[in-house]
Design brief:
Blueprint (H helix, E strand, L loop, with lengths): L2 H11 L1 H6 L6 E4 L7 H5 L3 E4 L21 H11 L8 E5 L3 H13 L4 E5 L7 H22 L5 H23 L10 H10 L5 H15 L11 E6 L6 H8 L3 E6 L17 H11 L8 H14 L4 E7 L3 H18 L3 E6 L6 H15 L1
Parallel strand pairs: 1-2, 1-3, 3-4, 5-6, 5-7, 7-8
Bound molecules: iron/sulfur cluster.
Length: 369
């Protein structure tokens, strides 16, 4: 395995250790997505995208958050109530799905952190919506400035956009290596590269990505010739599904996940005034469930063609109603309009993986025939 990828994998084995190595920095948590990290970087605060990093089943969480909230969100909340996230100055919870809204209520009421912000993002992407989001971002920025004790202007924001865009470009480049006939990097490794960026500093992560891309080029392309899969869904807590699919003989060549490709695929427009550009980006990213289903289909179709996908696995957490609303229509369109077979697995954080393995193996087998 390439050294840089190996390093990113090790970061994910113990993300809290990687976070604590930078304990001197002020840190902000956010979940699930659509938060422009630039706001935090501009203030000198390190943003951490929250996922369940402790790999413990949620126990305490059920006292203060509904059990019909998806297990990834409940596991994060469990870490917060157990005091495992005390290194954070606070959290921003963009209201992109029901789970994030429930989490915001629980966080505001129980107050494991003093600074708790929601970020409202309208469903429509009109001019008015853009102005509204700009105001929302300004409000959050003011809060972060007071935590950091700084005042931020366009210059700091533009610098932060440059930093984050460079990271997005590198991730895109790494993903695009998997367009080739024999991808030099597995789906599980590419996904680990994305997720390690949720806890590492952007500059450090970008250096690792550059190294990973260089290490991929002279590598012998994988000899695997199994079916090329795409994984579609909301937030995956880890790479288990990728490993299951690749153990079954397939290669995951691309995904459409909140925790995967959607987190870096779109760049912030550096030619616009920074706050306007960040508002535009916040509205453009196809986050669950803001994205209209026809736009999602357009985006997924493009990826299917570009990455020459043979089959699509919908991997959706139990109670992720937003993804489940889109599933029947999207799945039918992919099968009927594009002629690509699909399957569906329901995920639950830390649940037994055996039934999922059986289903994915059968799907991969059906693609080989
Ligand atoms: S998996 Fe679905 S419900 Fe859970 S946080 Fe992600 S988008 Fe929201």
């Amino acid at each position: 395995m390439a050294k840089a990828i190996d390093h990113m994998r090790r970061v994910l084995q113990n993300p809290l250790e990687a976070i604590k190595r930078e304990a001197e920095k002020k840190m902000l948590g956010y979940f699930p997505m659509s938060f422009p990290e630039e706001l935090a970087y501009a203030c000198g605060i390190k943003p951490i995208r929250l996922l369940p990093y402790q790999r413990q089943p949620p126990v305490e969480a059920d006292r203060s958050v509904q059990t019909f909230v998806c297990s990834v969100a409940r596991a994060i909340w469990d870490e917060a109530v157990r005091g495992e996230l005390s290194f954070l100055e606070g959290v921003v919870l963009p209201a992109t799905c029901e789970a994030a809204r429930y989490l915001h209520r629980a966080w505001s009421f129980n107050k494991p952190h003093r600074y708790v912000e929601a970020l409202s993002i309208p469903y429509k992407s009109t001019g008015l919506a853009q102005k509204f989001v700009e105001k929302e971002l300004m409000r959050v920025l003011r809060g972060l400035e007071s935590i950091a004790g700084v005042e931020v202007g366009d210059q700091e924001l533009s610098k932060a956009i440059e930093l984050c865009n460079q990271n997005r470009r590198l991730l895109k480049k790494l993903y695009e290596l998997r367009r080739s006939e024999s991808p030099p990097i597995s789906g599980a490794d590419a996904y680990a590269a994305v997720c390690s960026g949720y806890v590492l500093d952007k500059a450090v992560h970008s250096e690792l990505l550059k190294q990973a891309i260089e290490e991929c080029f002279p590598r012998q392309a994988s000899a695997k010739s199994g079916p090329r899969l795409m994984v579609v869904g909301g937030c995956l807590a880890d790479d288990t599904l990728f490993k299951v699919a690749e153990d079954a003989g397939a290669t995951v060549v691309v995904d459409d996940l909140n925790t995967g490709l959607r987190s870096f695929w779109w760049l912030v427009d550096e030619s616009l005034p920074p706050l306007k550009a960040l508002a535009k980006w916040t509205l453009e990213v196809l986050a669950t469930p803001r994205a209209q289903v026809d736009k999602r289909f357009e985006h997924i179709s493009k990826l299917i063609k570009e990455f020459r996908v043979d089959g699509v696995v919908f991997a959706i957490n139990r109670y992720c109603i937003e993804e489940k609303f889109d599933l029947p229509w999207l799945s039918e369109r992919i099968r009927e309009d594009l002629g690509i077979p699909t399957t569906y697995v329901e995920l639950e954080y830390l649940a037994d993986v055996a039934p999922i393995r059986t289903r994915v193996e059968a799907f991969v087998e059906s693609l080989v025939r």
